[in-house]
Amino acid sequence: MSSPLEDAAHAVAHGRCVIASTGAGISAESGIPTFRGDSGIWKKYPPEKFATIQAYLANPLEVWGFWVEIGREMAACKPNAAHVAIAEMESQKHLHAVVTQNVDSLHQTAGSQRVIEYHGNVRRLVCTRCRHQEPVDLTNPPKLPPHCPCGIVMRPDIVMFGEYIPEGPMHEAAALAEKCDVMIIVGTSAQVYPAADLPFIAKQHGAFIIESNIEETDFTSEITDAFLCGAAGETLPSLAKRVRELS
Ligand code: APR
Fold it and tell me: Are 109 and 79 in contact (CB under 8 A)?
């Protein structure tokens, strides 16, 4: 008897190159608020004030204060069953890599090995001049704004609105989207580009598109082949279980 879950499990179990593309929704059940929606982060912190490169250059301390607040919340959260299911499918060689828009490190904490951080990571600092990087513990942040050994102010290593995606993650993610024959999209509103291009690139190259979300998105009617409606913390473990049974 066919169903979206059965179709998705067969695609993953027999896929040659399966990748996941995740957004804030996969971390919602870990307690990290998503960005959009009634209780979204951008409702409390307007992005034009806290998340654009212009805001950062105009008022680095205020933007730093926002990322310390967000980073502290993220650092207190643990991976949920959806992150674990993704890591499990990778360890069982059913999933090749995760491209995530999230900056919370929960995929790595759950055990995923190949994670492309498309929007960076809030637990890393980068120098705006020499590109020196170093880890930062936002539960015990340094004196703000932190300084690089070269003397320049450092910033969170995340992609702010108005900035380009770093070349490495951008090219790696695009290559995976072209190469994959199955893409599992999890918990993204499909509103932010170029991240939202990746599923379309995969579809154009013949991939089977699986989507896990609590509501339909622009992807659903246009490119999704199997829509797993519901919380990722439930749909992804069910998917991973069925893939195991079919393998
Ligand atoms: N399971 C699955 N999906 C969920 C869940 C859940 N438990 N809870 C929420 N969602 C879905 C929502 O329906 C929505 O489609 O997750 C999506 C979250 O959308 P956004 O908050 O817009 O997050 P995202 O798509 O990751 O945003 C992309 O925008 O603000 C920038 O840089 C930021 O990386 C972020 C990017």
Answer: yes
User: Quick one: which of 126, 135, 88, 134 has its CA closest to 107?
Assistant: 88
- Tokens 């979204």 identify what position? 40
- CA of 188 relative to ligand 1 center, distance in Å: 4
pLDDT at 206: 98
pLDDT value of position 138: 84
pLDDT at 38: 85
41, 43, 39: which is closest to 67 by C-alpha? 41
Residue 236 has a pLDDT of 98
pTM: 0.96
Using a 6 Å CB cutoff, which residues line ligand 1? 23-25, 28-29, 34-36, 40, 101, 119, 187-189, 191-192, 212-215, 217, 231-232
Largest separation between any pair of C-alpha atoms in the chain: 64
Burial of 70 (0-12, 13-18, 19+ CB in 10 A): buried
Token pair recorded at residue 35: 């960005």
Q: Which helix (H) or strand (E) holds 235?
A: helix 232-246
Q: How far is the centre of ligand 1, averaged over its atoms, from the C-alpha of 219 (Å)?
A: 13
Q: Which residues are catalytic?
A: 119
Spans of the chain below 70 pLDDT = none
**Site to substitute for ligand 1 among 103, 163, 188, most atoms within 8 A of C-beta:** 188
CA of 218 to the centre of ligand 1 (A): 13
Do strands 226-229 and 182-186 pair parallel, antiparallel, or not at all (unpaired)?
A: unpaired
